[in-house]
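WARN retry 2 of 3 for item q-0093 after timeout on previous attempt; input resubmitted unchanged.
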Amino acid sequence: MRSSTCVRKAETNKMGSHNSPNRPPPREDNFDEELFEDNGMDGHNFDRDDDFPDEFVHVEEIVDDDDAERMDNDMESDEEGAAGSESQDNEETEPIRDDAVLTFKEHSGPVFCGSFHPTEPLAVTGSEDDTAYVWKTSTGEVVFKSDGHSDTIIAASFSYDGSYLATGDLGGFLQVFRLSEAFKRVWHFNIGDMTWMEWHRASNVLMAGSESGEVYFWRIPSGDCKVLQGHNSKAECASLTADAKKIAVGYADGSVTLWDIKTTTSVLGIPPNSPHGHTEGVLSVSTDPEGSLFVSGGSDGLLVISSSAGPLGRIDVRDPVETVAFSPATDALKLVATGTLQGKITIWDISRQSPRCECKDDELSGVTKVLWTRDLTLLAATLDGSVKVFEGRTGQLKSTLLGHRREIYDIQMHKNGELLLTTSED
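OK item q-0093 returned
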């Protein structure tokens, strides 16, 4: 059975895309040069000459014998568990209708990620089948197939201006292709096990987090590199601040750090088990699209609200916070949505640090990702393969989008607000 990716028409009022922050800063011709000024390269431990390096630094992951043996044992256990539950996992429920305008079915395994090209009618999707496809959103015709990966692709996206395509897999192998040269590969790198990858939203700088805790920044295509040093805890998630010059990173040990990208120094650190910090791992981070606030959601069921000056408060959501997102900026409201795998979506008034409303739906399944639109509509991807559309101010259910037969892993909206892309286990 082929795995599917669905493209749907957005509802009326052109639900504008919002992956926090809402409005990118104006493009500056020297934005990436500013981030990569030489005085910011002292924040990592690369050996280099006094002049700025012409090539990226190669980092090789070393696995000792004990770690390798544990990994083998873990893989065997996973395989045994998978075999025992295979019949249950393969069960699929046919939706009562299909709201997709197009379904892409070339992948042969679960599809974990997808994104739109910023200006061309193209999308890219990455899969457990170790491939990424670029395809036309109007017809599903394949434009490019990415080769070279030997592990599940968990990130695939176009740069802010659409000049480049980046793909990254679980094993930490990343590739960048230049679209104007028929998707010629212009750069590649391996960081060891990778947790996330995305483009900087105002320059051709690629960012990625690692299992060992380091966060990498590469200027493309030169490969000039910066590293935010880790502390032996997985860099689980991250979000750029409104000015795109800092990044909030959440770690598996429960710590949260706000970093200055230019200087590679910590602006703020919230250690685990501190009075206003997390007690368990951080699962999601979101930044205020217009200010200095950021929030982090953890497996401890806590939502921590912070500014660059320090943590401001902590809310008990009660269930692990799988996904969190700031709403677009408005004059009157500063809202944050949280979603849990237990099927609970709450809209929080951040100024009051209290719930504004809870999204109500008797059929709401576990939530994998929430996404705001510019008109304060909230979209929620779920474990049952549906997308729930709520009025973000009241939590009222507006509609349900169907088409998938299994859980949805990623949901993205085109910046024109007219197309919605979902990727799934099916």
